[in-house]
Amino acid sequence: MVIQSARKTNTKIGLCGQAPSDFPEFAQFLVEQGINSVSFNPDALISGIKNINKAEKSKTEYGMAESSN
C-alpha cells in the first residue's frame, strides 16, 4: 500500500477528496494506516473533522486496550 511505503521512507503522504467526510469507515482506514494529512472541500470540512477525530479516538482507545494485555 502507498501509505505504508511512504511511512517506511519517512515521506509525508496526504489525501485530497471527499471520501473521508462521506464515509467514516474510510476515515478510520486512513487513520489506521497512518496517513499524515487529509484535505477537504469547505462543504465537507465539519463532517470530515468529526470522522477523523472519531477515528483517532478509536485508534487511541484500541491502542490503550492493546497495551494493557
Report what the structure shows.
Strands 1-2 form a two-stranded parallel sheet. The protein has helices spanning 2-8, 19-22, 24-33, 45-67; strands at 14-16, 37-39. With 69 residues, it is mainly alpha-helical. It starts with a helix and ends with a helix. The chain is built from 4 helices and 2 strands; from the N terminus they run αβααβα. The model is unreliable at 64-69 (pLDDT under 50).
Secondary structure elements and pairings:
Elements: H1 2-8, E1 14-16, H2 19-22, H3 24-33, E2 37-39, H4 45-67
Parallel strand pairs: 1-2
The low-confidence runs, each spanning 5 or more residues with pLDDT under 50, are: 64-69
Mean pLDDT: 88
Q: Given the C-alpha coordinates, what overall shape results? A: globular
Helix and strand composition category = mainly alpha
Q: Portion of residues in helices?
A: 55-70%
Largest sheet: 2 strands, parallel
Number of helices: 4
Topology, number of strands: 2
Radius of gyration: 13 Å
What percentage of the residues does DSSP assign to strands (E)?
A: 5-15%
Order of helices and strands: HEHHEH
Give keywords.
69 residues; mainly alpha; 4 helices; disordered C terminus
Quick structural summary:
The chain is mainly alpha-helical.
